[in-house]
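Record type: ASSEMBLY
Status: queued
Input:
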Amino acid sequence: DIQMTQSPSSLSASEGDRVSITCRASQGISNFLAWYQQKPGKAPKLLISGASTLQSGVPSRFSGGGSGTDFTLTITSLQPEDVATYYCQQYNSGPPTFGQGTKVEIK
Amino acid sequence: EVQLLESGGGLVQPGGSLRLSCAASGFTFSSFAMSWVRQAPGKGLEWVSAITASGGSAFYADSVKGRFTISRDNPKNTLSLQMNSLRDDDTAVYFCAKGLYSSSYYYYIQHWGQGTLVTASS
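Status: finished
Output:
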């Protein structure tokens, strides 16, 4: 199975800050990488697919990049509503696997 | 609008069984693979099982293989997960998820149910 490792596991930043989360795959996955946002008690919400394709309705302050084994989710100006846990997921090969999550908080 | 509504969760003793269901609407159910993903309390997401659109092929995580069985009833637009020999570490919220294609079992998930809680505890 492909292992997905996210860093950091948690972060705290000020409103308006630029925030980046890294996801590393244990082997190359091309661009078959998705990012999700999950708020407490809710199902995950798809933010980005194909490593960098923003889903409809997702604010443009979210962006994704990378290919192969190293990927990044960036929030250019952190907003209070962005407080959540973020997960990456590879779908290059089965079984699909998720990173362990990054909890984002506001200072 | 795609809707996925899980049911069947609850409290069960270790070693017991439970059957989850997911009622799907808003899309042609018989054209898409479907999956179950779970999340233990305070933990991350774990893919559990998937089934192709026709129901002809099923896939399982190693952690549930031989204990869980996924199935679907296409005329009734319903996905099921039969869980036997439940263990403490099966305690989780179980999400139903819609696939992107008919036969692939690994894909990103655009549509999730709200989840149903399964608690395996004595």
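Annotation: Chain A has a mean pLDDT of 98.
Annotation: The radius of gyration of chain A is 13 Å.
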